[in-house]
Amino acid sequence: MRKFTLLTACALFPAFLYAQTVTAPKKSAPLPIIDVHVHAMKVSPGMAPLCPWFLRDMPGSDPNSAPPSFLSTGCAIPLQPAHSDKEMQDSLMATMKRLNMTMVVYGDAGIIRNWKKVAGDRIIPGIGVSSPSDMTVMAFTDSLSSGFYKVMGEVAPQYQGLSPSDMSLDAYFAAAEKNNIPVGIHMGTGGNGMANLTSPKYRASKGDPLLLEDLLARHPKLKVWVMHAGYPMVDNMIALMGANAYVYVDIAGLIWSYSQVEVNAYLKRLVQAGFGKRIMYGTDMLIWPKLVETSLSVIENADYLSYDQKRDILFNNAVRFFRLDPDKYK
Ligand SMILES: [Zn+2]
Q1: CATH no., domain 29-45+84-322
Q2: CA distance linking residue 181 with residue 172, whole number of Å
Q3: Collapsing DSSP states into helix, strand and coil, what is residue 79?
Q4: 307-328 exposure pattern, b = at least 16 Cβ within 10 A, e = fewer
């Protein structure tokens, strides 16, 4: 999911300037930030550059024509992909340090371990299961009991056309509940043309946040956050969060892919509905390191958010949700 757009000045906002704007007076280091949605993946050479906020003008398409492309470099200065695992690691670790960030990371176990060697507690490892064919319940439980993984995610049954409440996943969620492991579940947006292009089983309807209700009822102690905030089903997202007091969301992915007007309208609606204490910052980082600054610029420039609301989204809400010790970040 990547395409054209004109990069605005805020996307190019130098990180050091950003750091100044989020830094409280008299403090030398930037205030801490937690990104709850980062993918650790092997970098394939030749990946395309990315124009943020590219999904603002969907192509008209026809099944008898060439498949639509959601990828474009039609913006002034596209974000460049890392060209190797080392380049990705060096760049991301440097950004984390400079911006005083901690990241919740999922994906390739070897890459996660490499990052953790360099960044220590700034990396919080997660392990995802999206269908029983990924791993057995026993293997999953063993992985949790190793103590390395602190989070279950990204769980994405929607790509298999499954509801998160599907019973085939229930034993995994039971293990997470028993071990006090928070769970991040992909709900809502997942890239455009997904059902046609790469994931024929993908169903938009399986991203409805209300599908979580049975799962939540079965596992009252399970801490669940809805990745991508159930975009674009904001009414159902609000209904779910209203009925279920412990559900949080992240705004990863949508924050840099849809038009900024749309992203801000969605975020504003969630805050306006009273859920500013349950929204967490995330990028959905893949292989473009500058997505960090691009995504942060959206929060930083949101004139409908107060300073305190920005700090909640960027840090406080994640500390509360993941039961982290805020004193460790001072
Ligand atoms: Zn996702």
Answers
A1: 3.20.20.140
A2: 11
A3: strand
A4: eebbbbbbbbbbbebbebeeee
Pull the structure tokens for residue 247: 């559900």
Question: Where are the domains positioned within the chain?
Answer: 29-45+84-322
Digit-coded pLDDT (tens) for 91-115: 999 999 999 999 999 999 999 999 9
- Sign of the CA dihedral with 50 first, then 55, 57, and 63 last: positive
- List the one residue out of 93, 86, 82 whose CA is nearest residue 45: 82
Residues 6+ apart with CB under 8 A from 112: 40, 105, 106, 123, 125
pLDDT digits (tens, 9 = 90+) for 11-34: 333 333 344 444 444 557 899 999
| 330 CA from centroid of ligand 1 (Å) | 30
Q: How far is the CA of 203 from the centre of ligand 1 (A)?
A: 14
Rounded distance from Cα 245 to ligand 1 centre (Å): 22
Nearest to 181 by CA among 243, 128, 234: 128
* Residues recorded for the chain: 330
Q: At what angle do helices 85-98 and 15-22 cross, to 10 degrees?
A: 30
Distance of CA 46 to the CA centre of its chain: 24
CA of residue 154 to ligand 1 center, whole Å? 7
